[in-house]
Design brief:
Radius of gyration: 21 Å
Structural class: alpha/beta
Shape: globular
Mean pLDDT: 93
Helix content: 25-40%
Bound molecules: zinc ion
CATH class: Alpha Beta
Length: 351
């Protein structure tokens, strides 16, 4: 009898261990996207179901390593200890300024950008910053071009994961078939051409099964038009990272309407981005379920912001640096967005 009890206890212990490891296997099989609060800069951390990590932009330099420390905190939360792929969308301080500090603290595998530059008319201290970036990368950077892909590891039993670059250096992926522009394309408003590095941002789509995520860095208006006119090179998207922190020189309605996002996440700061026109464009779209914001735009009215529950940081000064997290469950064909501040969680179907 005693032996039987011991056997039963052992069996149930083994079953529990089996269940626990199955659970951790399952939780590993999600695609995670974490919006690190870098105060109006950009730092989007992606962890694939195979446990591979992609960091898109690194936030600002200075502030005693604030943004690098916040990225490290996000990495711990995502249970990773190094960055396998670092994508720099473009050479503006709020996107690549944080690289040297981050590289001092953690291991970074491969560095990707839109290619070498000698000067930037909008940044008089470019040469110095670019040299610090190249040095942090050990001189080894990979140039992404329209049509480039980053090969990602495939986790067993999960749908295909892929990352494709659609624009970089001011060029979009060439179209195979010539299409004639739609009425929406012809009617779309133009803005003055943008000579800054924003227009050279790396734009990519990350696909995991049927889930599609678009990150276009700080790409601006006329290039956004080229991405969807005359041919929509992006297709329909589940999750849209609002371009350029929500600036009104980006988020051309012709693009936003063509990609039909279900959810939009905006990495604005308390006084940067989050323009009322952008908020209006996005919230008035028929397909959009919710807009989530990194910060409340403190210069805007309540109506000109997403509802407070969907905003990670409400105050102008807030050292808590709450994140917004996305978890994609391909098996259940849904994705969940969580506001770390109030733990508001919403689940959306994948298209
Ligand atoms: Zn920016």
């Amino acid at each position: 009898m005693k032996r039987l009890v011991t056997f039963c206890l052992l069996a149930s212990l083994l079953a529990t261990i089996g269940l626990t490891s199955a659970l951790s296997q399952n939780s590993k099989r999600k695609l995670e996207i974490l919006y690190v609060d870098v105060e109006g800069g950009a730092a989007t951390l992606i962890v694939t179901p195979a446990g591979e990590s992609i960091l898109v932009d690194t936030g600002w330099p200075g502030f005693e390593g604030r943004d690098a420390k916040r990225i490290e905190t996000a990495m711990k939360a995502a249970n990773i200890s190094q960055i396998d792929h670092l994508i720099i969308t473009h050479y503006h301080t709020d996107h690549y300024g944080g690289v040297p500090e981050l590289a001092k603290r953690i291991k970074i595998g491969k560095f990707y950008d839109h290619g070498p530059m000698e000067s930037l008319q909008e940044d008089k201290t470019f040469a110095e910053k670019y040299a610090a970036y190249k040095s942090a990368a050990g001189g080894k950077t990979i140039t992404l071009q329209p049509g480039s892909t980053i090969e990602l590891k495939q986790a067993a039993g999960t749908p295909k994961i892929s990352l494709e670059v659609l624009a970089a250096s001011g060029e979009v992926k060439p179209m195979r078939v010539k299409a004639s522009p739609s009425a929406e394309c012809n009617a779309a408003a133009k803005q003055a051409d943008d000579p800054s590095d924003n227009a050279r941002s790396v734009v990519f789509v990350l696909r995991y099964g049927a889930f599609d995520f678009l990150d276009s860095g700080d790409l601006t208006w006329n290039l956004e038009h080229k991405l969807v006119c005359p041919t929509n090179l992006i297709g329909e998207i589940d999750l849209y990272q609002v371009a350029h922190h929500g600036a009104e020189t980006s988020n051309n309605p012709v693009l936003v309407n063509a990609i039909k996002p279900t959810v939009a996440i905006m990495n604005n700061g308390p006084r940067k981005g989050g323009h009322p026109n952008t908020v209006k464009t996005i919230r008035s779209m028929p397909t959009i379920k919710d807009l989530w914001q990194g910060h409340r735009n403190v210069g805007s009215t309540e109506e000109q912001n997403a509802p407070a529950d969907f905003i990670a940081n409400l105050e102008a000064q807030n050292d808590a640096a709450h994140m917004i997290r996305v978890s994609v469950d391909a098996a259940k064909k849904n994705f969940t967005v969580t506001n770390d501040r109030n733990k508001l969680t919403k689940t959306y179907s994948i298209k």
